[in-house]
Design a protein that fits this description.
The chain has 15 helices and 22 strands. Its cofactor is Mg(2+).
C-alpha cells in the first residue's frame, strides 16, 4: 500500500490531516478505486457524494467525484450533508455513497466515509483495504483517464426530513422548548429542516457552518464541549438540550437540569419503544453499554445481543440477527428502518417523542433507564497494552470474564471493560457499579494496574 494511504486508511474510514496527509490526489485515486470496488465503473451505475463544512471539504469532494467519473461511473452530488443524510441518500437511491468528513475530529483533519448501495458499510476488512490497494496501483501508474461519467446535483434534505418523520412521529400537543447545539457542524444544516414541522420552540446554538469550530470542538463525547448547552438549557428553562457532533451522526442529550443523559439510558429508552412497536424483537448493544440495557430488553420481551464496539461490526450483526435497533455508549444509534445505519437525529426524535407523550421532565423520563453508576471512558497512555491486559486477566482470574472486545470482568455488583485503541497507544477503561462508591473503588483498583501504581 502507498505509504500516504497507510497514514490515512483506518479500520472504518479514511481519516487524516488535510491537506498534509489527505489531499486531492489521494481523494481522486480513492474515488476511482471506490467506483471499481462497488461495481459502478464502466457505465454500470452511480454513486452519491456529500460533504461537511470543513475548509478542505470542497476540494476533496471535487477530486473524489472526479475520480469516480474517470471510471465511467456517474456522480449524484447532494452537497452539504450530515453523514446520516448521506446514508439516507445511499439507501433511498440504492447506490454506493461517499461522505467527505472527519466527524468530530479538530479542524485540521478531514476524511472519507464509504458505503455500498443501501448504505451497507465499507470497513477495512469489507472493501476499504481493497480500495486502498487499487488506489495505490493508480497512484503509481500513468495517471487517470479523463472523466466520462456524468455529474448531477440533487436535493436530498427534503426527502430525508420527510422520511424521518414517517419512522419517528413526534406527537403534537405538548410544545417542547428545545436547545440544540450544532457545534458549527452539519446539524446546523439538517436540524432546521427536520424541526420545521415539529411542535417545538427551538433555541439554536452555533448553527453557523464553520469548519474551524470557533466555539468548541464538535465532539459531545467530551463533556467539556457541553458546558454552553448545559448553561443555556438552565437559563432558558428548556425541556431538553441536544448536542450533535461535527457530521451530526451522533447526538447527546442534556436534561432540564443541565445534566448529561447517559447514551446507555437513551439506548434503553429507544429499545423500550422499539419493542412496543416490534414485540419480541432483537436489540443490539455493545460491550460498554450499561447492564441496564439487556435488563430493559428482557423486561420488555426482547432478545439482547452483545457486540464489540464499532459501527461496521454492529451493522453486520444487525443484518445477521434481524435486529430492529442497536445502541453504542459512544452515542451512535442504529435503526433497521434506516437501512441499518446510525442516525443521531432519529435518536433525538425518539427522545422528544417519548417526552411529548408525558407531562414530566427528561430527568423523570430517564430515571427508569439510569440504574447504575458509571465511570465514563477513561483513557491511559501505555507502552505495552497486551502485557497490561494479561496482568488484569491474571488479577481477576477468579471472576467471570470474556475477551469479546478487550477484557470484560463481571462481578455481582460491578463490571469493567478495558480495550486497546486501534490507532493510539491507549487503553480505554469503562467501569459500572451498583452505586457510586462501588464503581469508584473498582475504577481506582483497575487504574492502579493499568498505570503501574
Amino acid at each position: 500500500m502507498d505509504p500516504r494511504l497507510e497514514q490515512v486508511v483506518k479500520a472504518y474510514d479514511v481519516r487524516g490531516l488535510s491537506p498534509e496527509q489527505l489531499d486531492a490526489d489521494l481523494a481522486r485515486a480513492l474515488g476511482a478505486a471506490f467506483a471499481v470496488e462497488t461495481g459502478i465503473d464502466g457505465g454500470r451505475g452511480a454513486a452519491v457524494v456529500g460533504h461537511d463544512m470543513r475548509d478542505t471539504s470542497p476540494a476533496l469532494v471535487e477530486a473524489f467525484s472526479e475520480g469516480v467519473r474517470t471510471q465511467g461511473a456517474d456522480v449524484i452530488g447532494i452537497g452539504l450533508a450530515s453523514t446520516d443524510l448521506l446514508y439516507f441518500a445511499s439507501g433511498d437511491l440504492d447506490v454506493p455513497g461517499a461522505m467527505i468528513t472527519a466527524s468530530h475530529n479538530p479542524a485540521e483533519y478531514n476524511g472519507i466515509k464509504l458505503c455500498r448501495a443501501g448504505a451497507k458499510p465499507i470497513g477495512y476488512d469489507t472493501g476499504l483495504s481493497a480500495i486502498a490497494e487499487h488506489a495505490t496501483t493508480l497512484l503509481r501508474g500513468a495517471g487517470l483517464p479523463e472523466p466520462s461519467g456524468s455529474y448531477e446535483q440533487r436535493d436530498a434534505l427534503t426527502r430525508y426530513a420527510e422520511y424521518l418523520h414517517q419512522i419517528v412521529p413526534v406527537p403534537a400537543g405538548r410544545r417542547l422548548k428545545v436547545v440544540a447545539d450544532a457545534g458549527n457542524g452539519m446539524a446546523g444544516h439538517t436540524v432546521p429542516s427536520v424541526f420545521a414541522s415539529l411542535d417545538v420552540d427551538l433555541t439554536p446554538m452555533y448553527f453557523e457552518l464553520d469548519g474551524t469550530f470557533p466555539n468548541h470542538d464538535a465532539n459531545p463525547l467530551d463533556h467539556a464541549t457541553l458546558v454552553d448547552l448545559q448553561a443555556t438549557v438552565r437559563e432558558t428553562g428548556a425541556d431538553i438540550g441536544l448536542a450533535f457532533d461535527g457530521d451530526a451522526d451522533r447526538c447527546f442529550v442534556v436534561d432540564e437540569l443541565g445534566a448529561v443523559v447517559s447514551p446507555s439510558a437513551i439506548t434503553g429508552l429507544i429499545a423500550h419503544r422499539a419493542l412496543i412497536a416490534s414485540p419480541g424483537a432483537t436489540i443490539l448493544h455493545n460491550v460498554i453499554t450499561s447492564k441496564a440495557v439487556p435488563e430493559i430488553v428482557a423486561e420488555n420481551g426482547g432478545t439482547a445481543v452483545r457486540t464489540p464496539v464499532g459501527h461496521s461490526l454492529i451493522k453486520a450483526e444487525m443484518a445477521r440477527t434481524g435486529a430492529v435497533f442497536g445502541g453504542e455508549h459512544s452515542g451512535h444509534f442504529y435503526f433497521k428502518d434506516f437501512f441499518l445505519a446510525d442516525s443521531g437525529m432519529i435518536a433525538a426524535l425518539h427522545v422528544m417523542a417519548a417526552l411529548a407523550e408525558t407531562d414530566g421532565t427528561v430527568s423523570q423520563l430517564m430515571a427508569q433507564y439510569e440504574r447504575y453508576a458509571a465511570s465514563g471512558e477513561i483513557n491511559s497512555t501505555v507502552d505495552d497494552a497486551p502485557a497490561i491486559l494479561e496482568r488484569l486477566t491474571t488479577t481477576y482470574a477468579d471472576l467471570e470474564h470474556d475477551t469479546m472486545d478487550g477484557l470484560t470482568v463481571t462481578a455481582d455488583t460491578w463490571w469493567f471493560n478495558v480495550r486497546a485503541s486501534n490507532t493510539e497507544p491507549l487503553l480505554r477503561l469503562n467501569v459500572e457499579g451498583d452505586d457510586e462508591a462501588t464503581m469508584a473503588a473498582v475504577r481506582d483498583d483497575v487504574l492502579a494496574i493499568i498505570r503501574g501504581g
